[in-house]
Amino acid sequence: MTVAQKTSTKLDVPGHGAVEVPTGLFINNEWVPAKDNATFEVVNPATGKKLVDISHASDEDVDNAVKAARDAFENTWGTNVDAGERIALINKLADLLERDTKIVAALESLDSGKGVRMAATSDVPESIGCLRYYAGLADKVAGQTINHFGPDRFAYTLQQPIGVCGQIIPWNYPLMMLAWKIAPALAAGCTIVMKPSELTPLTALYICNLAKEAGFPPGVLNMVPGLGKTTGNAISHHMDIDKIAFTGSVPTGRAISVAAAESNLKKVTLELGGKSPALIFEGSDLQQAANWISLGIYFNSGQDCCASSRVYVQDSVHDEFVKLLAANAKAAAIGKPEDDATSFGPLISEGQRDKVLKYVDSAKQEGANITTGGKTWGNEGYFVEPTVITDIGQDMKCVREEIFGPVVVVGKFSDEKEAIKLANDTTYGLAGAVFSKDASQVQRVAQAIKAGTIWINNYGILSSRVPFGGFKQSGIGRELGTAGIDAYMQTKSVHQNLGEQLEWPL
Ligand code: NAP
Ligand code: MG
Q1: 466 belongs to a structural domain
Q2: d(CA 228, ligand 2 centre) in Å
């Protein structure tokens, strides 16, 4: 006989002592172990040591979560309730998250390796802001009246929630990616079956207790941690999930699209990777450009889909810019996540660290110059130094592929035309940036770069109020802004007869 797994455990959280944290599956507002009692380990990336065992949702568990979500969608959520109820609950969840900022930030830091100060001042407040933004939008989405048919007929449209949504999120911003997904879905009236990354499930599970405390009806938010190839695969193939929203790598995005096509043609939105170019023209404030590029590539230790990972600088200012960027790389506040002084922590896993170091090796072999960094840092955990690579060629692996670590490649251009050509020489199209003091030039370049987000004389700024998503292979659809809630709604057109008589036969 197998002994049922516990669904919570004590975990030592820096600054908080032993904290009871959920480790089970959250289905229909209840904590349950996986049906087959399977678990997986979660590791602290700053030490490489195990933190806790988490339940691993099987196909059967996913199916139970979908049943709960379907029941809630048909009976207690969606079009069954006034939007005011959804608004109150989402705002209440935001309030509870604000109340628990310190413990959530500490858990996020422990699980993902990001500095606890960064988690408390960026990840948690941004997530709260996203919830509140979509709470505010929940009763602003409306259809159209189309009355251009004379007296006998008119038509209108309804914006209705899509239904049960599968949401699969990555490990780089575990809480923020959760907020970007659940806030618009809940506001639209959808119900959710979410899989957090196997590497970072702790804050997603914590949020479920807050959702229950806030008073969300059972089945509205379900959390099924597990591996991508098992739990994620069960979600993407499920016949009763109406839409899937995914953030992560291009190969996984492609696999999810195929699964959706092969099952019930569920709607798909994808937010995938990038190799985002930044163009720095002569006459720019080079120190400011170096600071923004450093934020773009070293924030979150470079594990960012819109990282400023590919920089091209006009010949005349290239060397000076590289000096400033390398100085910033050396000055990064690298250290233990639990120290308030740290803004640059370890990479998420041994695998990710090794992958990043392999790109540095391949750059050397292909003849690039490692100007600074390129090595591991400290004696434990998965740290990699902030790295600058110069003397690049367009065909090098480090220039073409997403590294997803603190590694920026820097090349040169001679004029605007060449700069734009280099910027667009990629299969990705998530973001791009231009630094210049010429007001017409920044507009020309912003229009020419083929990417979903462009920064002019800054980098990396995102807001819940502004849409975000990719051109080319960086994704399908948009998150955030009003586009974010539209992605969880579908338009129904209604034609009404006001007296028109039909003669038969025609
Ligand atoms: P990934 O494999 O795309 O994982 C993202 C999410 O998808 C995780 O929850 C993952 O689960 C799940 N998943 C994996 N295979 C799946 C499948 N066949 N069906 C359904 N879900 C599946 O990304 P990763 O392995 O964590 O990281 C690899 C690379 O992805 C990174 O090096 C980076 O280039 C890119 N990435 C991009 C972003 C972004 O923001 N765009 C974020 C993270 C990573 P498991 O964690 O359990 O495998
Ligand atoms: Mg993975």
Answers
A1: no
A2: 6
